Amino acid sequence: MENSIAEQAKANHNRQTALKVAKQALLERVQAHTILAQDGGVFQINEQTIGTLKSLIDARYENVIMLDANKNPIKIANPQDFLTKAIAKYQEALNEYHIAYEKLKRQRSAEQFIDD
Amino acid sequence: MTKGVCQFAINNNLWNYFEFALANCKQIKLLSGLKTCIITDQTSVDANKDHPCLKYVDDIVIKEDLDRNPSKRRVYDADQDRECKWFNWSRPEIGDLSPYDQTLLIDADLMIYDTSLFWCFDTEYDLLFTNQCHDATQQDKVIDYKRVYKHGVPLLWATVFYFRKNDNSKKFFDLWKYARDHNNYYSRLFNFNLNLYRNDYSQAVARHIWDANTEQADYFPNKVQAVSDNTKLVKINKDNFVIAYRSGSARFDGEWQMLKIPKQNIHFMNKFDLKRVAEDIISVY
């Protein structure tokens, strides 16, 4: 049964569809890999988190309060340290995504798609 | 304060669940060094007493009455189906069974490939639920519900759950056990299927009561990445899985297509594929 299913899937391989579905799977991984615990809360790191944090630091706010993923207010003890960790986490996840996506784009045949 | 990951794993007539859990313990230990615990019965332990991955397990908790009420369910391997016993009755007792102060409870069929859940140990949350599941095939043919029943209580996924032992979490566990013990009543009240006891449902009901019928609770931002049981694993590569899935609108409809999922924490609903994945983890790394 397994070989038969694999052969059928291989014969029906549609590069555009496969790329679209694989891209979404990679994006889901980015989401999972950009979650960071800080000062008791949990944050989904994205452009908004980084931008808000950077704005608050630049405006020299003494008490930086941010809403975490569950909308709980969290006082950030060391905003600069959090920003550094957040940027590192975000870039690491996007770098993984970039590498995997570039590889995916080069896989033109069903054989390449399966084997790499 | 002790921290660790717990899994329930009771072998049944089809699968060696204990071995699935061992594969996960190996991953958890190598990725994070966290403590690992398997809650099981003596038969499952005896069946794996010489397993090479036992060295990755810190604690084994034996709970013999786990099978007080074994459910029966149909399980699928792509187009084929079989019936098996499903031992899941004791899950709400995790508050008493876990040897750790902070516990991440995962299903033995959620294969761990990264550390993206372990941040929970660095928070101040007492309880974290999972309310998001993503069908990796993006078809939502099987995993398409957000509530236990249309217009009913919001569904939770007991696949991933975190708690800190204290009075607050104890109150929740008392409710969870109550919801389980009165599954018959709640299935009528909230209109869900009684034929199969599901911890997802009893946990959702308990949370619903606990939060005074609101949807306010604290959740994992993570989605459970799931591959449904109408798919077939084609190949395990170094960085990804290649999976065949049906492209039609119904569960067993349409032509087979291929999907590639990067290696990340994945809930395999096709346990025949899960066996291959667990064997790969045990042998390759």
**Structural class from helices and strands of chain B?**
alpha/beta
What's the order of the H and E elements of chain B? EHEHEEEHEEEEEHHHEEEEEH
Oligomer: heterodimer
Helix content range of chain B = 25-40%
Largest interface: A-B, 39 and 41 residues
- How many strands, which pairing sense, and closed or not: the largest β-sheet of chain A? 2 strands, antiparallel
Shape of chain A: elongated
Overall body shape of chain B: globular
Along the chain, the helix and strand elements of chain A come as HHEEHEEHH
Please give the number of β-strands of chain B: 15
Q: Which regions of chain B contain 5 or more consecutive residues with pLDDT less than 50?
A: none
Number of strand segments of chain A: 4
The side-by-side strand order for the widest beta sheet of chain B comes to: 3-2-1-6-10-8
**Structural class of the secondary structure composition of chain A?**
alpha+beta
Number of helices of chain A: 5
Classify the beta-strand content of chain B into a percent band: 25-35%
Any descriptors?
heterodimer, A: 116 residues, alpha+beta, two-stranded antiparallel ribbon, 5 helices, 14% strand, B: 285 residues, alpha/beta, four-stranded mixed β-sheet, 26% strand, globular
Q: What is the topology?
A:
The complex is a heterodimer of chains A (116) and B (285).
Chain A lengths: L1 H10 L3 H19 L1 E4 L2 E4 L2 H12 L5 E4 L5 E4 L2 H28 L3 H6 L1
Antiparallel strand pairs in A: 1-2, 3-4
Helix pairs in contact in A: 2-4, 3-4
Chain B lengths: L2 E6 L8 H16 L2 E6 L1 H6 L11 E4 L8 E7 L2 E7 L7 H4 L4 E6 L2 E2 L15 E2 L4 E3 L24 E5 L2 H15 L1 H8 L8 H12 L13 E4 L4 E5 L3 E7 L9 E7 L3 E3 L2 H14 L1
Parallel strand pairs in B: 1-2, 1-6, 2-3, 9-11, 11-15
Antiparallel strand pairs in B: 4-5, 6-10, 7-15, 8-10, 12-13, 13-14
